[in-house]
Amino acid sequence: MPDDGRVDLLSIHDLHVHFHTTLGTVRAVNGVSLRVPRNHVMGLVGESGCGKSVTARAVLRIIPPPGKIENGRVLYHPPDGGTVDLALLSPTGRQLRAIRGRRVAMIFQEPMTCLSPVHRIGLQITEAIRAHEPVSRTEARERAVALLADVGMPKPERQLDAYTFELSGGMRQRAMIAVALAANPELLIADEPTTAVDVTIQARIMELLRSLQQSHAMSVLFISHDLSLVAEMSEQIAVMYLGKIVERGAAVEVYRRPRHPYTKVLMACVPHQTSTRKTPLQTIEGTVPDARRLPPGCPFSARCSEFMPGVCDRSMPAITSVGDDHEVACFLHSDQAEASS
Ligand SMILES: Nc1ncnc2c1ncn2[C@@H]1O[C@H](COP(=O)(O)OP(=O)(O)OP(=O)(O)O)[C@@H](O)[C@H]1O
Ligand code: SF4
Ligand SMILES: [Mg+2]
What are phi and psi of 96, to 5 degrees? Predict the structure, then answer.
């Protein structure tokens, strides 16, 4: 990863996460390196099954069983010093509990993953505040009202007493964000937070997340399968395919000049303002291969229109620089192919 002067809050190095199942080993994350600088939005994009959620869950050590970190480092660099390797901590230990929720919070596609159906919204927020800070009930309640106002809940005092089932989909999304932000985290991991809501609500939630990122001076790891959404939201983009980062760089650079054949295919699926109904939106041909049977060489080889026999199926292309703040892992953009032939 390049040394570009940005200060990292999180840096993942050569992360491998496997699921040892009776049907074989799923190599869900297969050597991922990724940085989330302070006060930055890093977008992680890729099709379903590429390993985005498993990467995110590895950070908080909430990988579903039988998933296991096999290798790699997940370094958290708190602004007040004292880098810690989250991969080495006990998932149920005190050190990780102090980071989870307080320093690093996560929101999901389905708000009910993190909200309780049987407790009022206000209690869920005040408990989250009081779990991390010794404030009185009255102060926690005042902060909860302010937070609900921050996330755009109308009549926030009244919403304190609402149950999640009384809220609309968009309002539940906002309540989930309020709970996540209750402890003022330094990093917010947003895993497809708007996939389940309609486009109008999606646009509002995205706007909200962007303004909260700035007002709270947070870093965000924003995950989506939608490249246009990720480009709009992020300063940096990492494109993931079959457990690997295949392209990474400044969002404008990757979006305007995608280099990896996979990113170009993702681009072709983005609806453009200039497109008319007569030009049907391209869909990606084929599916992500089974992560139990990885192809030899480049992970995209089976679907790549530029596949070079004897080159792409011989070894894995290393990620290499193709410009200022732009890297790609493809033999079309490196001299490794010549070196190995
Ligand atoms: N509990 C599990 N047991 C076995 N394999 C799993 C488990 N959870 C995830 N996987 C596998 O890990 C790989 C990565 O899954 P992951 O959920 O990270 O994908 P994703 O990129 O987040 O996809 P989506 O866009 O659908 O959320 C997939 O091959 C998936 O089948
Ligand atoms: S290395 Fe080969 S197969 Fe892989 S993306 Fe590049 S051209 Fe395609
Ligand atoms: Mg996912």
Answer: -70, -35
**224 CB near ligand 1 (under 6 Å):** no
R_g (Cα) of the chain, nearest Å: 21
With a 6 Å cutoff on the Cβ, whether 258 touches ligand 2 is no
Are 239 and 245 in contact by the 8 Å Cβ rule? The answer is yes
Which atom from ligand 2 is nearest to the alpha carbon of 312?
2
Nearest CA to ligand 2 atom 3: 301
Residues paired with 245 in a beta bridge: 240
What is residue 133's predicted lDDT score, i.e. its pLDDT? 87
Structure tokens at 288: 């992500």
State if residue 263 touches ligand 2 by the CB under 6 angstroms criterion. Answer: no
Mean pLDDT of 97-118: 90
- The more confident residue out of 4 and 293 is 293
User: Model's pTM, two decimal places?
Assistant: 0.93
In CATH, what class is 8-103+185-340? alpha beta
Any ligand 1 atom below 6 A from CB of 21: yes
Q: How do the domains of the chain map onto residue ranges?
A: 8-103+185-340, 118-183
β-pair partners for 28: none
Which token pair is 93? 């230990």
For the chain, the helix, strand and coil percentages under 3-state DSSP, each to the nearest 5: 35, 25, 40
- Nearest ligand 1 atom, CA 47: 25
